Amino acid sequence: METADIIKTASVLLGTELSEPVDLGGSNRSTVLRVRTAERGTVILKAHGDEREYLAERGGLRFTDLGPRLLAAEDGLRLIVMEDLGGHRNLADVLLGGDEAAARAALVEWAAVYGRLAAASVGREHELPARTDEPWLREYGAKFAALLDGLGIEAPDIDEVVTALEQDRFRVFSPGDICPDNNLLTPGGLRPIDFEDAGFHSVFLDAAYTRMPFATCWCVFRLPKMFSLEAERAYRGEVVTAYPELADDRVWRPGIRLATVAHVALMSALLFERVREEDQPMHRSRPEVPSIRTILRYRWDTTAAALERAGELPAFAAAFRALLAATEHWHTADLPVYPALRD
Prior knowledge:
There is one protein chain. The longest helix is centred in the C-terminal third of the chain and has 23 residues. The protein is globular. The chain has eleven helices and nine strands. It has two domains: 81 residues, Phosphorylase Kinase, domain 1; 251 residues, Aminoglycoside phosphotransferase (APH), C-terminal lobe (Aminoglycoside 3'-phosphotransferase, Chain: A, domain 2), CATH 3.90.1200. It is α+β, with helices and mostly antiparallel strands. The strands form three sheets. It has a five-stranded antiparallel β-sheet with strand order 1-2-3-5-4. It has a two-stranded antiparallel ribbon with strand order 6-9.
C-alpha cells in the first residue's frame, strides 16, 4: 500500500487532513508512519500486510489501554490509526546505556507491567477472537526438527512441547512481542507499542523472557542472575494474584523451562541458516549487539544446562548439546553482560 493511499484513508477516518509523513521503519510486513494532523498534533498510522497480525493488533489495542490508544481502524485496507506516544527512550536504550540504576528500575517495571496485565486479563479471553493454538510454535517447531535432521542430529518430540504449551491452563493476555525496544519509558510509566501478535497464551511464554533473557529479541546480552531473579519475582508476584498455583515452584519452574525450550527451538530454526556459513550481527544498525552465532550458542548451552540440572526433557538437552558440538568451529566469544549492568 502506497504512503499516499495510507494517508488519504487515515484522513477520511479521522476527519482531518494529515501531512508530513515520517517513515518509522515498520517491517517487511507493515508500514508505520508518523503524520501531522491539521491541529499540529501527531498520530501513528500502521498498514498491515498480514490479516492475522492486523486483527491481533486491532483486538489487542481495544483489549487494554496500556498501549497506544486506538483512534480508528479500516478492515479492508488493514489500517490502524493510533495515538502517538512520542519519541521516548525504550527499554533497549536503557539496557545498552551506562546507568545501572535506571536499567534495573526499567527492567523491574517492564516485568511488573506485563505481570499486572497478565493477571488482569484472566477470565477475559472471550473478549478476543477465539485462538487456541500458537501458529509460530507449530511452524517453527517443524522447522527446528528439519534443521536437526539436516545436521544428522536426532530430533526430539517438539510436538509434545507445543501441545503442552497450547493446552496450558495458565493462559494470559500478552501483546505478543514484549522485547525491550517495543516498550517506551514515558513519564507516565512503561508503555508497550507492538500488539501485532496480541492474544492469549501460556503465562510461561512471557515469564521465560525474564530468565533467558528476552527470548525472541535482538537485544540479547547476558543478564546477571540477581537482575534476572528480580525481574522474575516482579512478574511472578503479579500473576500469582490470578493463578495462586504459580507460587508453587513445582509448577512454575518446569513451566519456565518448557517455554524456554520452545523459544530456543524457534530462534534456532529462524536464525541458523542465516549464519551457517558466516556470522552476522543480530542487529545491523547496532554494532554493539552480540552476533547471531554467539547468541545461539549461549541459548543452547544455558538451556541444556538448565534441563540437565532439573532432569527434564533429556532429548532436548541432548539436541542442544549436539548443536553445540556441530558448531564448535564457530569459535564464538562468551556472551557479554548488558552494558548498563556491567561492574
